[in-house]
Specification:
Number of strands: 0
Length: 112
């Protein structure tokens, strides 16, 4: 899989509610041809697999929305995990700095 760009992620983010309904509920409202084309384009770009759009077939539309939704939610989870790791690393570094400062003060007090 290729990494999803911020632009692609934002393009799909507006359809998050439709993805959730399609994946969890097994149905979706017709999102429109432009939305289907965007979903298919991002899906193909990220996975390298072509996806066929038959906008007259409700089952085909559902599959496009589900497939694009799975890619979107995988990317969303990856970004959230990355953000959490950054926050934990920052908190860990802050704690280390405080500990080092305390040690320095303790050593300074012991010498006096």
């Amino acid at each position: 899989m290729n990494p999803m760009t911020d632009e692609q992620f934002q393009a799909l983010a507006q359809y998050e509610d439709r993805f959730r309904t399609a994946i969890d509920g097994g149905w979706c409202r017709y999102p429109g041809l432009a939305a289907l084309q965007t979903m298919a384009s991002v899906y193909t770009s990220v996975t390298g697999q072509g996806i066929r759009i038959n906008s007259g077939c409700s089952r085909c539309v559902l599959h496009v929305v589900q497939d694009a939704g799975r890619v979107y939610f995988a990317e969303k989870a990856r970004r959230e995990a990355e953000e959490t790791a950054k926050k934990e690393k920052t908190a860990d570094n802050t704690a280390k700095k405080k500990t080092a400062a305390k040690r320095k003060e303790t050593t300074k007090d012991a010498k006096v």
